[in-house]
Amino acid sequence: MKHFGLIALSVLSLISCKNFEKPEPKSDTALVEDSIQKSEVKLYTLNGGEIQVNNKNLFAQGDTYKGDTIVLADAFYVIKHPKGNLIWDTGLSEELVGKEPKSVNEGALVLSRKDSLSVQLDQIGLTPSDFDFIAFSHIHFDHTGGGNYFKDSTWLIQDTEYAFATGEEIKSQGFYNTNDFKALKNVKQLKGDFDVFDDGTVIIKSYPGHTPGHQALFLDLVNSGPILLSGDVYHFEENRENKIIPQFNHDIPQTEQSIEQFEQFVSDKRAKVYIQHDAKHFNRMPKSPKFIN
Fold it and tell me: CDD domains recorded for this chain (predicted)?
């Protein structure tokens, strides 16, 4: 029995060591390749229009911003990566380009767009056919305006957002235009966070609540460091400072949970946050054809 006990202990020891075995360290060549790849990731900021908000209180509950107005940017982004290209959001409808501003929601919002998507892409030597991936932070109309240009790209979307986009409930909602993305047929449905290029440099983060499958985008850049593009977790700095949630969010309790997760991730990564609709944040970013890396 004593010998049996020693044998059993040895077997358990081997199993335990195997279970907690450290992964093989990367070779010097692999580390160099990772470093080169990371240094080649570029983030371009493009202009998807402007939103004059005549009823800022839409972006709160109660009377927090009653009587206030604000001008929101409508940024969208291109990520160039050695393994491919990703477009993140596409701005307002291109039907606005060259037209007078359009009033919607009984004058609560006034929409305008000066530059087309194709003209801005041309400035960085790209066309829609050059994109492997398209992802919207969410499918509100101010983020999907140029979606149909990317019919050959793989659409990265949370499964909950896709179910909503293709369901009946969306038909009665005013903040969506399903015609903006009807040409997108190559769909990859996500279930949470997704590492786009499988190297940690470009990661879609799931933060539902604003819409059923809202998401943000994390980038780990060699010079600029960790960056988080907010989507619409927040719309402007005041929202973030006071954790104020728009009254039109799909699920307010879920948004509250996502905000906590968002801020914890920012703290863990020591990431710089760019609020996509905040005009001050937009103005701080170098504009295409300039980039950050």
Answer: AHL_lactonase_MBL-fold (cd07729)
d(CA 205, CA 264): 13
Q: What is the pTM for the complete model shown?
A: 0.87
Stated as kind and residue range, the H or E segment containing 236 is: none
Q: How far apart are CA 287 and CA 43, in angstroms?
A: 10
Cβ count within 10 A of residue 243: 12
Tokens of 269: 């990564």
Kindly tell me the sign of the dihedral angle through the C-alpha atoms of 199, 202, 208, 213: negative
In CATH terms, the fold of domain 30-284 is: Metallo-beta-lactamase; Chain A (3.60.15)
The DSSP letter of residue 235 is S
Whether the ω angle into residue 226 lies within 30 degrees of 0, i.e. cis, is: no
Q: Which amino acid appears at position 129 of this protein?
A: S
pLDDT digits (tens, 9 = 90+) for 133-162: 999 999 999 999 999 999 999 999 999 999
Alpha-carbon distance 283 to 48, whole Å?
13
